[in-house]
C-alpha cells in the first residue's frame, strides 16, 4: 500500500499505544518512520516497522527538553533529508482529585502533554516551512471537551493542545502546512489499562457490527490494535 509512499513521518510516543499503532499503520501505507519516545521500547517499534519492509529510525528523546527535541529533528533530517508528517502523540495520564493534586504532577502533565507538543511542533514546522508543505496531527482527547473527575491536569493539558492546534493551523496555513487535532475517546492501550478498567463498559456501549462500517474499521485498525 503506497498512500504515503516516500513520505517521512515523525511520530512521538511511538513505543506503545496510539503512538505505536500510528507509526505502524503509516509504515504499512508506505511512509518512512522516525519513531520517537523517551523509552528504549521505541526500538522495538522500529524493528517491527523494518519487518514491514519500511525504513525506520528510532530516537530516544524527552519531548519536554528543547535541546533533545532539536537534536532528534536534526537526526531525522540527516537520515531522510525532510519531514512530511508530524504526529504528536507523546502523553501521560495523571489521576488525582484537584484538591489533592501535587504541583509536581500538574507540572509534569502539562510539560509532557502540552509543552511537548509546542516544542516538537516548533522544531519540525521550521523544517516544513523551508519546503512549504507538511501535515501535523496532534493527538488530543475527548477529555479536552468535558471535565472528568480526577483528571484535572490531563483535561487542562489536552484543552491546551486544542487551542495550540488552532493557532498553529492559522500561522502555518500560508506555508501550505495543515494542522489538525484528533480527540479519541477511551482507547484500550497500556496507559489506560493502568488507570481504568475500561474494556467491559466500552464494549457494552459499542454496536456489535461496528467493524462492518468502513470508517470504523479504519479507526479500529489504526488505534484499536496495539
From TrEMBL:
This is 3-oxoacyl-[acyl-carrier protein] reductase. One of its GO terms (biological process) is bile acid metabolic process. GO terms for molecular function: oxidoreductase activity, acting on the CH-OH group of donors, NAD or NADP as acceptor; quinone binding. Pfam families: adh_short (PF00106). PANTHER family: 3-OXOACYL-[ACYL-CARRIER-PROTEIN] REDUCTASE, SHORT-CHAIN DEHYDROGENASES/REDUCTASES FAMILY MEMBER. InterPro entries: KR_dom, NAD(P)-bd_dom_sf, Sc_DH/Rdtase_CS, SDR_fam. It comes from Desulfosporosinus metallidurans. Keywords: Oxidoreductase. The keyword Transmembrane helix does not apply. Residues 7-185 form the Ketoreductase domain. It comes from the Bacteria. Belongs to the short-chain dehydrogenases/reductases (SDR) family.
Amino acid at each position: 500500500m503506497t498512500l504515503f509512499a516516500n513520505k517521512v513521518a515523525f511520530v512521538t510516543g511511538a513505543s506503545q499505544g496510539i503512538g505505536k499503532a500510528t507509526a505502524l499503520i503509516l509504515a504499512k501505507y508506505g511512509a518512512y518512520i522516525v519513531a520517537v519516545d523517551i523509552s528504549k521500547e521505541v526500538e522495538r517499534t522500529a524493528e517491527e516497522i523494518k519487518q514491514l519492509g519500511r525504513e525506520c529510525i528510532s530516537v530516544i528523546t524527552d519531548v519536554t527538553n528543547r535541546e533533545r527535541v532539536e537534536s532528534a529533528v536534526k537526526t531525522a533530517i540527516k537520515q531522510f533529508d525532510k519531514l512530511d508528517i508530524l504526529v504528536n502523540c507523546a502523553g501521560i495520564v495523571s489521576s488525582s482529585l484537584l484538591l489533592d493534586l501535587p504541583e509536581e504532577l500538574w507540572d509534569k502533565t502539562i510539560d509532557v502533554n502540552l509543552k511537548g507538543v509546542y516544542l516538537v511542533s516548533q522544531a519540525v514546522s521550521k523544517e516544513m516551512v523551508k519546503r512549504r508543505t507538511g501535515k501535523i496531527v496532534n493527538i488530543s482527547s475527548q477529555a479536552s471537551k468535558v471535565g472528568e473527575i480526577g483528571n484535572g491536569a490531563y483535561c487542562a493539558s489536552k484543552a491546551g493542545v486544542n487551542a495550540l492546534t488552532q493557532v498553529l493551523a492559522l500561522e502555518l496555513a500560508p506555508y501550505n502546512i495543515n494542522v489538525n487535532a484528533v480527540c479519541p475517546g477511551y482507547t484500550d492501550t497500556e496507559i489506560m489499562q493502568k488507570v481504568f478498567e475500561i474494556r467491559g463498559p466500552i464494549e457494552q456501549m459499542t454496536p456489535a457490527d461496528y467493524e462492518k462500517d468502513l470508517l470504523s474499521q479504519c479507526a479500529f485498525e489504526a488505534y484499536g490494535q496495539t
